[in-house]
Design a protein that fits this description.
The structure holds two protein chains of two kinds. In chain A, about 40% of the residues lie in helices and about 15% in strands. Chain A is α/β, with parallel strands linked by helices. In chain A, strands 11-12-10-9-13 form a five-stranded mixed sheet. In chain B, strand 3 and strand 4 form a beta hairpin. The chains are: A alpha/beta, B alpha+beta. The structure holds flavin mononucleotide (FMN), iron/sulfur cluster (SF4) (3 copies) and FE2/S2 (inorganic) cluster. One iron/sulfur cluster binds next to helix 23 and helix 25 of chain A.
């Protein structure tokens, strides 16, 4: 055995021993989410309160730890309670009051508090939970795997209400040649995975497991199941079990600041494998074969990029860079990944550095992400302490170190050439490519820049193999993609799905549909560089090429759901305003062109548009797309173009009828009080932020239209429907 | 005023450390972050001192400071209001909240009121889109803010100041 594996084994043994010593396995564990979003929702207070109660109880068998964000934003803060050998219980929207109840009833007396359980699906504690893969691939076999299992349970006479069944997302276990033949299911609390093909086999498994209480080893799958840990914690929540967590598998599961936790979940095993093999070209080959493409927006094949960095140059100085600038104004995938599992990024970068022969790496993070920065700093320090960064990593002779560099709020610095200038301490203005960074990057040396999520995929591919990875996804888009689902959807949050999942599945099966009985109007992907997809195209799968065909892009993962109350002209204007203000000003088409376009949109939303404005917008768009120097300019017109393509009618109504069909454009609406209906209750006057409503109590009120800022508060608060919107 | 004082010794130490490293001038942005972290903004005097200590032209320092939106060239107000203008917050009406702040304070984004009490800034998605629209005042996060509430927050602060 070589040095690296030797080192890794020793590390793992040491950590295992520490864990044994702590007696963790026998203790009750309370896990509190602690990402930025959870903190904003009050998780720090929750943590403190639990700590106080634990101290007061004088018990030493209760542990508490922090974890990253699970992505279930709408329900934060989330608290997990683990009793040894039992199915973990997750609580949602935990407040100080809820902490009291959970502690008294659940922790001290062992009684679950059903009212607070995440997604309230659990009204009681089940003896067993079965998660069955119901992804498209497996579904070809049986019409409805959940029903099939239910039938088998009933036939076996398993008492009603003791088992809960869930259809889950792809476990990543199926082999290509087996697709459509096999069915995979996981049974808790034993956490075993069975694979079966026929009804008879299923019945055999059920008989053995539930009646004889014996694990049926014949159908047991020994395969290393990458998302097992995540599924065993969250597999019973419908928001999660339709997802396939590869890059986010540790987020919400481990303490992001704990190297022990990371290593216990296969952390650094991939790096050990790479250093042991000691063959950079093997690493590049694996990444090439996996079909991994960049997750930062462009979708360039990662393996090819790495190969370019060594093929055309013999410069001994090379760099790797992690792009954590996350510029899309509506997205937070990368932040969550960094806050939830920083070590996986470090490991990915170290593997990449080894592959191309770099000895220094940089993580370029937005300054707006203080918690992510703090966690990265801690992770880097721990990795250095444990010989996982620095000189002679894992005693293999390979040297590599990582430095953090902060962005300073310039969207354009997410563009790779601008990013490099910013790392060099300069103004981040893009330059023409070629030369590409892999030819001439930081300080003129070959540099590989990849997105956070791209790096996060690397250790997994190395560990489970390119062949395994390439089985997940579509023909040309492999693996999974993380999206930040937001806007008019019930379950907002982070979702990670296999490529090829349809937008409909994401919005309805995972996102839970549109709230307030409103109608879905469009989905926006790709943020300021992307476009909107109308409802008749919701069957489109998430795939680089399919989304591009529709005039949108995969982008970095922003996904905003719009309903009938959203105005497409306003939405297009919102994105253009953003890119316009972020244009670096270096080239005229982008700097002046976006300004002209914005002026036209301003005209349209204020009721001064003319019909030829539409042609002007289109002409400007084409010019900017063609003549801009960097991606910011080239893609800036996309939101407008795609809105014009799919919702042209809406533009025309704004222009010809001076009307906003969604009642969103402030200058095209008016609020008025209907004399006959107003009771003079004074509520609107008290609420109006512009104090422009006058009237004596019990007398009709009036709105001063000149001072009104069209905020709609009066309309929202009047209990007598006396305010109307035109 | 901190304007006229020299840089803090800790920051000077940091600059000296950077000067020892390879590509010393690449740490300019990091130094500016440290100064803003300490003083709340970048004053002319401080930028000048950075130029001298890091041995880069003054024009480079001010060029960088003005290029990046994160750097503030004026002090923050006592109540620093940061309004999320991320996509989700926009979709849920952040523009109306902005309008409420504007009309209440009489200032635009990036400005500070003349009494130095309030400054108004926008941020991008904080990741709490479920709570949109989101406003942060100093370190306090307010979620699902309505235009009325925006005006009330200002009035409450004014009241506290007067009391
Ligand atoms: C205006 C603009 C902004 C960008 N912002 C980001 C960003 O925030 N994060 C990112 O990873 N890539 C961003 N990119 C793409 C990067 O230039 C680069 O392609 C990417 O980091 C490469 O990594 P990948 O191949 O792993 O995706 C941006 C590109 C442009 C043109
Ligand atoms: S396209 Fe826009 S952002 Fe890009 S270099 Fe030109 S002006 Fe700058
Ligand atoms: S809230 Fe309605 S009823 Fe009351 S004063 Fe205003 S308009 Fe009249
Ligand atoms: S829309 Fe807003 S500003 Fe106008 S009258 Fe109503 S509450 Fe006042
Ligand atoms: S857009 Fe405001 S918090 Fe996400």
């Amino acid at each position: 055995m070589g040095q690296a594996l030797h080192y890794y084994d020793a590390l793992k043994q040491f950590i295992e021993a520490r864990r044994q010593q702590s007696g963790l396995a026998e203790k009750i564990l309370i896990q509190v989410g602690s990402a930025t979003c959870e903190k904003a929702a009050g998780s720090d207070l929750v943590m403190k309160e639990f700590q106080k109660l634990i101290r007061a109880s004088g018990r030493d068998d209760i542990l508490i730890k922090q974890t990253g964000c699970t992505g279930r934003c709408a329900r934060e803060p989330i608290v997990g309670v683990f009793f040894p050998g039992q199915i973990p219980i997750k609580y949602e929207r935990v407040t100080i009051d809820r902490v009291q109840t959970i502690f008294q009833e659940h922790i001290l007396q062992g009684i679950t508090v059903p009212e607070f359980v995440l997604d309230k699906k659990t009204d009681k504690r089940y003896d067993y939970v079965i998660t069955v893969c119901s992804s498209e691939k497996c579904r070809h076999t049986k019409a409805d795997p959940e029903k099939m299992i239910m039938d088998a349970l009933v036939k076996e006479g398993v008492p009603d209400g003791t088992v809960r069944i869930f259809g889950g997302g792809c476990f990543g276990l199926c082999a290509n040649d087996q697709a459509g033949k096999q069915q995979v299911m996981m049974v808790f609390p034993e956490r075993v995975i069975y694979t079966f093909e026929t009804d008879e086999q299923l019945e055999e498994i059920i008989h053995s497991h539930f009646s004889q209480k014996q694990i049926h080893s014949k159908y047991l799958t020994q395969a290393d199941f990458i998302t097992e840990q995540f599924f065993s914690m969250y597999g019973d929540v419908s928001f999660f079990n339709k997802q396939t967590r590869l890059t986010l598998r540790n987020s919400g599961l481990i303490d992001p600041e704990s190297l022990v936790d990371y290593v216990m979940n296969k952390g650094y095993e991939g790096l050990a494998k790479v250093l042991e093999k000691d063959d950079p070209s093997w690493v590049i080959d694996e990444i090439l074969k996996s079909g991994l493409r960049g997750r930062g927006g462009g979708g360039f094949p990662t393996g090819e990029k790495w190969k370019n960095a060594i093929t055309y140059t013999n410069d001994p100085t090379k760099y790797v860079v992690c792009n954590a600038d996350e510029g899309d104004p509506g997205a937070f995938m990368d932040r969550s990944a960094l806050e939830g599992d920083p070590f996986i990024i470090l490991e990915g970068m170290t593997i990449g550095a080894f592959a191309i022969g770099a000895r220094r790496g940089f993580i370029y993070v937005r300054a707006e992400y203080p918690l992510a920065i703090e966690r990265l700093e801690k992770a880097i320090a721990k990795a250095r302490e444990n010989n996982l960064l620095g000189e002679n990593i894992m005693n293999s002779g390979f040297d590599f170190d990582i430095e953090i560099r902060l962005g300073a709020g310039a969207f354009v610095c997410g563009e790779e050439t601008a990013l490099m200038l910013s790392i060099e301490g300069k103004r981040g203005q893009p330059r023409l490519r070629p030369p590409y960074p892999t030819q001439s990057g930081l300080w003129g040396h070959p540099t590989v820049i990849n997105n956070v999520e791209t790096w996060a995929n690397v250790p997994t591919i190395i560990l489970y193999g390119a062949e395994w990875f390439s089985r997940i996804g579509t023909a040309k888009s492999k693996g999974t993609k993380v999206f930040a689902l937001a806007g008019k959807v019930r379950n907002t949050g982070l979702v990670e799905v296999p490529m090829g999942t349809t937008l409909k599945e994401i919005i309805f099966d995972i996102g839970g549909g549109i709230p307030e009985n409103r109608k879905l109007k469009a989905v926006q992907t790709g943020g300021p560089s992307g476009g909107c997809i109308p409802i008749d195209k919701l069957d489109t799968p998430v795939d680089y090429d399919e989304l591009a065909k529709l005039g949108s892009i995969m982008g970095s993962g922003g996904m905003i759901v719009l309903d009938e109350s959203d105005c497409m002209v306003q939405t297009a204007k919102f994105f253009l305003e953003f890119t316009q203000s972020e244009s670096c000003g270096k080239c005229v088409p982008c700097r002046e062109g976006t300004l002209r376009m914005l002026e036209i949109l301003e005209r349209i939303v204020s009721g001064n548009g003319q019909m030829d404005d539409i042609t002007k917008l289109e002409r400007l768009s084409r010019m900017i797309q063609k003549a801009s120097l960097c991606g910011l300019g080239m893609t800036a017109p996309n939101p407008v173009m795609s809105a014009l393509e799919n919702f042209r009618e809406e533009f025309i109504i704004h222009i010809t009828e001076k009307r906003c069909p969604s009642h969103r454009c402030a200058q095209l609406i008016r609020y008025e009080i209907i004399e006959e209906k107003c009771t003079g209750c004074t509520l609107c006057a008290r609420r109006c932020p512009a104090t422009c409503i006058t009237g004596r109590p019990r007398q009709v009120h009036f709105i001063d239209q000149k001072a009104c800022i069209k905020c709609g508060e009066c309309f929202n608060v009047c209990k007598f429907d006396a305010v109307f919107k035109i | 005023m901190s304007d006229h004082t020299k840089l803090d010794s800790e920051i000077i130490k940091f600059i000296d450390e950077c000067r020892e490293k390879e590509h010393a001038d690449s740490y300019l942005i990091a130094v500016l972050h440290k100064i803003q972290g300490k003083y709340g903004y970048l004053s002319d005097v401080h930028m000048h001192e950075v130029a001298q200590r890091l041995q880069v032209p003054s024009s480079t320092v001010s060029g960088v400071a003005t290029f990046y939106h994160f750097f503030r060239l004026q002090p923050k107000g006592k109540y620093h209001i940061s309004l999320c203008l991320g996509t989700a917050c926009f979709v849920k009406g952040a523009d109306k909240i902005l309008e409420a702040f504007r009309s209440e304070l009489g200032i635009e984004l990036g400005e500070t009121t003349s009494d130095k009490l309030f400054s108004l800034e926008c941020s991008r998605c904080l990741g709490v889109c479920a709570l949109a629209p989101v406003v942060t005042i100093n370190d306090q996060v307010y979620s699902k803010v309505s235009p009325t509430q925006a005006a009330e927050l200002i009035n409450k602060a004014r009241f506290e100041e007067a009391a």
